[in-house]
């Protein structure tokens, strides 16, 4: 059975929670799913101090002792994750952003390949589209298989028409998520994804050494030699583009 975890940025069990509940109902109409709700408010998560020990020496050196690993384990144990947040001042709720700050080392050493990811944003009036865009970009950079989520308007009192739109949007988002969750094909990277990988690995290889965790992680993962983070046939054009990105990254480092 597939395991799906919803991470919720709202402090209340209101609009965001209701949207996730609809999403869950839709998913379960396809097949039995082990579905878990995680409210960030129920976990202890300190603010990042910016010491960079996680980047440089490894995440186990973080001086903050709290529920970070417990939350991360929830992702490791899941086949799919949903990040659901209200729009607060044109951004995700701070409590959720804090989680992404505390796990930013994963942007250097992504590891969620094969796991499906989507986003639900609820808002009164405006700003949610850019939050979705940002959260999608985080998901991609963390290695997830990102599917288009939804941004729904929840201005109170909710009209019948508004509720119908929410139901429709959530239904479409859950259908896309389910399709990816159950897909057996390995996605080929986009040109941008390929460029990000090649630029990152060249910088890490040329500028760091084995006293640095990013360097060791890339080396142990075989990423200094591989075409991409995971085994995938790139095809002629992307293979060529990959070589060009390696060359470009080397030039940029030489002339910085
Ligand atoms: C502090 C705060 C800031 C908000 N900022 C925005 C905003 O910038 N744009 C917007 O459209 N809605 C904004 N809203 C409305 C919420 O995004 C909306 O009501 C959301 O559905 C609340 O989710 P919840 O019921 O799960 O708490 C804000 C609400 C709060 C409490």
From TrEMBL:
The entry's keywords: Flavoprotein, FMN
SUPFAM superfamilies given in the database record: Flavoproteins
Cell membrane in keyword set: no
Tree of life domain: Bacteria
Record-linked Pfam families: FMN_red
Record Gene3D superfamilies: 3.40.50.360
Chain ranges of the NADPH-dependent FMN reductase-like domain: 3-148
PANTHER family to which the protein is assigned, alphabetical: IRON-SULFUR FLAVOPROTEIN (PTHR43278:SF2), NAD(P)H-DEPENDENT FMN-CONTAINING OXIDOREDUCTASE YWQN-RELATED (PTHR43278)
Protein name, UniProt field: NADPH-dependent FMN reductase-like domain-containing protein
Organism: Clostridium zeae
């Amino acid at each position: 059975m597939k395991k799906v975890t919803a991470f919720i940025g709202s402090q209340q069990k209101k609009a965001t929670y209701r949207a996730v509940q609809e999403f869950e109902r839709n998913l379960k109409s396809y097949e039995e799913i082990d579905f878990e709700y995680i409210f960030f408010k129920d976990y202890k998560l300190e603010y990042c101090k910016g010491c960079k020990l996680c980047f440089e020496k490894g995440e186990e050196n973080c001086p903050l002792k709290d529920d970070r690993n417990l939350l991360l384990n929830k992702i490791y144990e899941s086949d799919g994750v949903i990040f659901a947040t209200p729009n607060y001042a044109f951004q995700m709720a701070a409590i959720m952003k804090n989680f992404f700050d505390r796990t930013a080392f994963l942007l250097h050493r992504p590891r969620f390949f094969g796991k499906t990811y989507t986003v639900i944003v609820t808002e009164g009036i405006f700003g949610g589209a850019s939050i979705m865009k940002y959260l999608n970009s985080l998901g991609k950079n963390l290695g997830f298989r990102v599917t288009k989520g939804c941004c729904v308007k929840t201005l109170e009192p909710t009209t019948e028409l508004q509720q119908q739109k929410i139901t429709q949007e959530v239904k479409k988002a859950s259908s896309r998520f389910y399709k990816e969750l159950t897909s057996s094909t390995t996605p080929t990277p986009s040109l941008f994804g390929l460029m990000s990988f090649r630029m990152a690995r060249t910088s890490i290889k040329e500028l760091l050494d084995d006293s640095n965790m990013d360097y060791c992680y890339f080396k142990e993962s075989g990423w200094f030699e591989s075409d991409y983070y995971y085994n995938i046939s790139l095809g002629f054009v992307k293979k060529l583009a990959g070589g060009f990105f390696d060359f470009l990254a080397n030039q940029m480092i030489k002339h910085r």
